[in-house]
Structure formats: structure tokens, C-alpha cells
Amino acid sequence: MTKLVANWSFPTAIRFGAGRIAELPDAVARAGMKNPLFVTDPGLAKLPVTASTLKLLSGANVAHGVFSDVRPNPVESNLDAGIAVYKQGGHDGVIAFGGGSALDLGKLIAFQAGQTLPIWDFEDIGDWWTRADADAIAPVIAVPTTAGTGSEVGRAGVLTNEATHTKKVIFHPKMLPVTVIADPELTVGMPPFITAGTGMDALAHCLEAWCAPGYHPMAEGIAAEGVRLVLENLPKAYADGTDIEARAHMMSAAAMGATAFQRGLGAIHSLSHPIGALYDTHHGMTNAVFMPHVLEFNRSAIETRMARLAAYCGIAGGFDGFLAHINELCAELKVPRSLPDLIEGLRMEEDRRQLIADMAIVDPTAGGNPIELTLEGALDILDRAMKGRG
């Protein structure tokens, strides 16, 4: 078996391999941090993996603070609280440790702590990012403990606006972490549900990047290999959480998805975002519920492309074969069959149905869908997801 250890610099410096969390103090020093704020989520904060990581910092005499008031779908009040702790502690950088929520919020704290304009002034619209004081953005070291969002290699963070119940993407090139420590041993403790949900998130990123229109062959190549890695390794990681090789491949696929989706995302995400904002669902699992229905909706535009991807992944039957494989994977991973299965007791009243569709078509990710996502189309996909896959 090939040893899965490498040093990468695409798109940022990545220290990849089992056991490399031990290099965290060195990464902190090289980033010029003297007193970083360690940002994680409340569940992870209580686990031994976090205690052992903090012990590494203490053992190297690295001063640090800890912040863990992070919701699964981070909101502005989480950001405000994190910035207050950052300033009170005199911190000079962030170690973002955890899944997508902790990684996103950690990056946003490092970004926003030195700004004077409101966070919503930096939404990923046009050149709004140029409004930021780039010199005031603190460095970030990202340490993912799940294999899903790929936020560790991203230049943006997702934050829910509590006033409007909408998810917003905040972007700046300097939000990209200066170093990533991608240690698959940190993902061993993930329960099967989280392994499945985060893995399906990685698949959604790669799959939508593959399907998005536009010319970006580098992203296409990364997306295709990311899909293959997920399809081959997610069932293994789900069945045996201690399979380090499968965990390593999934961690690679997560970073690949976030690298590839600079090409675009699509209706899986644009519908998942309002559901997550309104019902606080797990993002990856929500993506998984929508995935087969969005593939069917986009069929006329992606059939040939999906046949090529299916062949690359060793799946017979072109588009139909690939779709069947996705449905089988969802069943194997116990992905909820429908939105009511995901959200217990969900009843989709007409005004809420219209609201979700309205939010979906203006979501920034909608523009990457291979077929224009109209209000009628969003309602169609939403209705399919309410009924569930066959």
C-alpha cells in the first residue's frame, strides 16, 4: 500500500497524513502567531481529541485561548461572541479546529475582528470583498476533523443572517488559511451519521463542480477524481471508522471538492441552504436528500457528461447507472429518503414552500446550475424531495 503522506501547496500549504497534528506548534510559529484563538464547536470541545491537541500547544509553551460557542449553522451572534473573545484575549491569529461550522466561523473571526464595516458588507457579490482592510485580516491555521466541507482550503465562510434566516457567503482571498493540517486520525471518532453526512457533502461539492457550466478543466479533473474517491471510500469509512486509508482518501476528497467548486455549485446547494437556515439541518445530509432529484432535474444538460463520469468511476449504464449508484449509496448510508424523514414532522405549507423556492433561486450557488434554476424548477425539485427517492 502506498503511504498516504504528502506536502501540497494547492491551493495552500497542506500538511497531509496520519499523525501530523503533532506539527501544530511548528505551524503556529511559522505563521507568526504568538497567541492564537483556538476555535471549535461545543461538542468537539469536550472530546479527548481536542484536549490532546490543546496539550500539544501547552507543551510547546504556545499561549492560546479557546472559543466554542458555534452552532451547526453559525449565526452572526456566534461571530460577535467570537470576536469579543478574540479582542479580549489579545489574540493574533486563529486555529480553526473541527467541521465546517468551526472552520467557517474561525475564518470569519480572523477576518472580521479587524474590520470596521458590518460583516454583511463583505458578502460574495461582485467586488464587495475589496471593501475589507486586507492588512487587518489575521492568519488562520485550519485543522479539519471531518471530511466534508473542505472549508480548510476555501477563501470564504458561510454565515446565517438571523434577521432574514438566509445563509450568506462572506469572501476574501486572505481568508484562505495559511496552513492546513489534514490528519485523517482526527476523523476516526466521527459517528456513522456524521461520516455519512460530511462525506455526502464532499460528494455534492465534487459532483456539482463537475456538472457546472463554464471552462475550467483543472477544476473538472479534480472534481472527477474527488467523486471517484468518495464513491470508493465513503462506504468503507462508514462501515469501519478506524479504516485510516479510507479516512485519508475522504479527507483528500473533501479538500478536492472545495478546490473544484470554484467552477461552480448548483441547485443541490441553493435548495439546501434555505432548508438549513430555516430548519437548522445538517448541511451534508440535506445535500444528500436533494442530490438524486437535482441530477434528474438537470438530466437534459448533463447526460453526456455524467456518462463520462460514470465510466471513469467504473459504473456501467451511463446517467441511469450513475443515478442508481447514488440512490444505492444513499440507502447504504441511511440517508433520509425525503425532507420529512430528515426533518421530523415537517409539513410544507404553501407559503413556506414558496419562501424556500424564492430563497433558492437567489442563492449565489444557483448560478452554477447547468439548467437555469427558475422558481418553477425550484418548486419542482422541492416537491420531489418532499416525496422522497424511490
Question: Which key terms come to mind for this protein?
Answer:
two-stranded antiparallel sheet, seven-stranded mixed beta sheet, Dehydroquinate synthase-like, alpha domain, Rossmann fold, 2 domains, 390 residues, globular, alpha/beta
Please describe what this structure looks like.
The chain is an alpha/beta fold and 390 residues long. The protein is globular. The relative contact order is 0.11. The strands form 2 sheets. The chain has a 7-stranded mixed β-sheet with strand order 1-2-9-6-5-3-4, with helices on both faces. A two-stranded antiparallel sheet has the order 7-8. The protein folds into 2 domains: 181 residues, Rossmann fold; 198 residues, Up-down Bundle (Dehydroquinate synthase-like, alpha domain).
Short précis:
The protein has 390 residues and is an alpha/beta fold. The chain has helices at residues 24-30, 42-45, 48-59, 76-88, 100-112, 192-211, 217-239, 244-260, 267-279, 283-297, 299-312, 318-332, 339-342, 350-362, 375-387; strands at 6-9, 13-16, 37-39, 65-67, 94-98, 140-144, 156-161, 166-171, 179-182.
